[in-house]
Specification:
By secondary structure, the protein is mostly helical. Helix content is about 70%, strand content about 0%. α3 crosses α6. The longest helix is centred in the N-terminal third of the chain and has 32 residues. This is Carbohydrate ABC transporter permease.
């Protein structure tokens, strides 16, 4: 009886948590599909009262948004594999405790997790590398994450040593062992890193704000921030202006545009979770059980 009561409480709590976290996203989705001229627009609703795709048509016909989608997809498609390659190779090397200077090298990398030069020195380094207003400013400065490297290194240290020894007996060198033995069995933790890296690239806006001035290099999230800031002024319109806008019965509004852009920026990365879910929890737990 106690077990049934406990399970009911747990499932009830999880259901409540799901509703609380899912409803804001659902509300944005419904508003993006509702005609902005609908008198009930903005009110509580579980489905569109006046279905319309005009907001999405407006968003997807905007050249700036389309270009930002291309930039964001490009940095994600290029940045994620390069990050995985760098993180996994460094993690494999540092998983070998017989490496000369192993402790000092590890301390060197861990030091960078706690101390950094700050924004201005970082900007100066990026500028000295001629990466300002360059697409590669989205790739190279953040290509390595020490936290992810430690996660992958810890995972590799927990693998049976017999696998590498058997491969060495067969004549495999370190590169062959890394590519054909280690990488295939590190799928859970690498899938976790893939998810983290993809989310980071897709949602990044600050580097585009700091390091780029060319509008053609702005990411989707940077454009979203710009749109949200621009349309905040709509809340300051006079009552007469608001009434005039309502009388025009426009199918889109600043609010509906914001909702549609938010969905365009959010939905693709959300769809990645089901694809990598079976690896995510396993990779996080196994990579974190050993220090």
């Amino acid at each position: 009886m106690a077990t049934v009561t406990g399970n009911t409480f747990v499932y009830g709590f999880l259901l409540l948590l799901f509703i609380v976290t899912f409803f804001p996203f659902w509300h944005i989705f419904i508003l993006s599909l509702n005609d902005a001229s609908d008198p009930t627009y903005g009110q509580f609703m579980l489905w569109p009262s006046d279905f319309s795709l005009e907001s999405y048509k407006t968003v997807l016909n905007d050249a700036e948004i389309l270009n930002s989608i291309v930039v964001t997809v490009g940095r994600t498609v290029i940045g994620v594999p390069l990050t995985l390659a760098c993180v996994s190779m460094l993690a494999y090397a540092l998983s070998k405790r017989e490496l000369v200077g192993w402790r000092g090298i590890n301390l060197f990398f861990v030091f960078t997790m706690y101390f950094s030069g700050g924004l201005i020195p970082t900007y100066m380094v990026v500028r000295s590398l001629n990466l300002i207003d360059s697409f590669w400013v989205f790739i190279f400065p953040g290509i390595m994450s020490i936290f992810w490297m430690i996660l992958v290194r810890t995972y590799m240290e927990g693998l049976p040593k017999e696998m590498e020894e058997a491969a060495q007996i067969e004549g495999a060198n370190d590169i062959q062992i890394f590519l054909k033995v280690i990488i295939p069995v590190c799928t859970p933790v690498l899938a976790t890193i893939t998810l983290f890296s993809a989310i980071g690239h897709w949602n990044a806006w600050y580097d585009a704000y700091i390091y780029t001035y060319n509008p053609d290099l702005k990411t989707l999230s940077a454009v979203l921030v710009k749109i949200l800031n621009q349309f905040q002024t709509s809340d300051m319109l006079s009552a007469a202006q608001q009434l005039a806008n309502e009388q025009r019965k426009l199918p889109v509004s600043s609010e509906s545009i914001r909702m549609a852009v938010t969905m365009v920026a959010t939905l693709p990365i959300i769809l990645m979770y089901p694809l990598l879910q079976k690896y995510f929890l396993k990779g996080m737990l196994i990579g974190a059980v050993k220090g």
